[in-house]
Amino acid sequence: MIKFNEDDNTIEWIGVERRFSTFFGSKSDSASSISIDDITEVRKGVQTDVLSKGGLLDPGCCLSIITADRTLDLVVETVSERSKVIAGLQGILSAKAVKFI
């Protein structure tokens, strides 16, 4: 589950769950949040090294949240679900100059 925490302006997640899987980049898997202020880019599809090594993933179900020092790669169950996550992130990040690729 992905949740926006307004108290400390972070996106939090719970690891592998029934509805999606998370793949982690450069930092420890134990960290479970990313500051909204640190997000520089959101990528749709299989566009990171980690997701590329993930096997036969449906690009329509993948997205990556990028910061300067880590990447959060997500794989959801459906294209519709990814669209909802992207729309939510666009709403949260609308005041920032974040690239959606």
What distinguishing features does this structure have?
101 residues; alpha+beta; PH-domain like; five-stranded mixed β-sheet; three-stranded antiparallel β-sheet; 2 helices
What does this structure look like?
The chain is built from two helices and eight strands. Residues 16-30 have low confidence and may be disordered. The chain has helices at residues 49-52, 79-92, and strands at 2-5, 10-13, 20-24, 33-35, 39-44, 62-67, 71-76, 99-100. It is an alpha+beta fold and 101 residues long.
What characteristic shape results from the CA principal axes?
globular
**Count of spatially separate domains:** 1
Task: Tell me the distance between the termini.
Answer: 22 Å
CATH topology: PH-domain like
The CATH homologous superfamily corresponds to: Pleckstrin-homology domain (PH domain)/Phosphotyrosine-binding domain (PTB)
> What profile does the largest beta sheet have?
5 strands, mixed
Task: Count the E strands.
Answer: 8
Q: What letter string, H or E per element, gives the SSE order?
A: EEEEEHEEHE
Gyration radius from CA atoms, angstroms:
12 Å
What share of residues are in beta strands?
35-45%
CATH class: Mainly Beta
Q: From the helix content, strand content and strand pairing, which structural class follows?
A: alpha+beta
Which CATH architecture is right?
Answer: Roll
Low-confidence residue ranges: 16-30
Helix count? Answer: 2
What topology, given as strand order, has the largest sheet? 3-7-6-5-8
How much helicity do the residues have?
10-25%
